[in-house]
Amino acid sequence: MSESEVKTAKAAGTGAAAPVWQRLRLEAAEAARREPALAGFFNAAVLSHDSLTQALCYQLAQKAGGPDMNALQIREVCKQAFLEDKNIIKCVERDLQAVSDRDPACRTLLQPFLFFKGFLGLQTYRVAHWLWHQDRDVLAFFMQSRTSELYGVDIHPAAKMGCGIMMDHATGVVIGETAVVGDDCSFMHGVNLGGTGKEFTDRHPKVGKGVLIGADAKILGNIKIGDYARIGASSVVLEDVKCGCTVAGVPAKVIACIDCEEPAKAMDHLISPSKMQD
């Protein structure tokens, strides 16, 4: 990072108002200064690139590359996806910001960009999703398989995922083919958006915007989870959930409604006793 770039980034600040790429470069430069043994890594992953798109394509390819398809080949596929669908990078920025805002363990944007498997698995899915809509389903399935192997996150490339999504830890997350997830949702580990049988039609949940889903929760079947709902940890949800309501249990029952206005952003898993239903 040049001296002028450092000055510009510092002038903009490292808070949420600063552009994501600018913040990422500044953080990488600082990390390289503090940990010289990793300076080459930070340079290769972030500082040697001219844009967030280039850096992310490199990072995803380095992770997913292997004997069947090398990193350079995957990098070219990622570049094509980002080039032809400008919405992907907008979602990437919102996803990064979501992790930064909602995960108290996240100190910098550099952490999820380099190390968090929830973020990396979600971005690899975004490339697979683009491939799916280019009728390149075989390569899309290859990317899905690599994502599952690498990160423990299994998202069907046909599933529809919104922007500003945070997957905390993400191990064991499974999202089925006809699932839909709205913007600004937060998932804990072990979440399953699955089916209930062998139907070949629309068979997976439709999750609204701003929904918080607790660890190991299972939402099964073609049901609707309303905007800003909360799903309690380890719950099994088999019926629709209304907007703003909290459900928990096996099978899940309504515990409270309008208990938390934006649960996915607040990351509030507690239920106020005064608002619990009988």
From TrEMBL:
CDD domains: LbH_SAT. Pfam families: Hexapep (PF00132), SATase_N (PF06426). It comes from the Bacteria. It catalyses: L-serine + acetyl-CoA = O-acetyl-L-serine + CoA. Pathway: Amino-acid biosynthesis; L-cysteine biosynthesis; L-cysteine from L-serine: step 1/2. Its EC number is 2.3.1.30. Keywords: Acyltransferase, Amino-acid biosynthesis, Repeat, Transferase. Residues 20-124 form the Serine acetyltransferase N-terminal domain. Gene3D superfamilies: Hexapeptide repeat proteins, serine acetyltransferase, domain 1. GO terms for molecular function: serine O-acetyltransferase activity. Belongs to the transferase hexapeptide repeat family. This is Serine acetyltransferase. It comes from Hirschia litorea. The lineage of its organism: Bacteria, Pseudomonadati, Pseudomonadota, Alphaproteobacteria, Hyphomonadales. The gene is cysE.
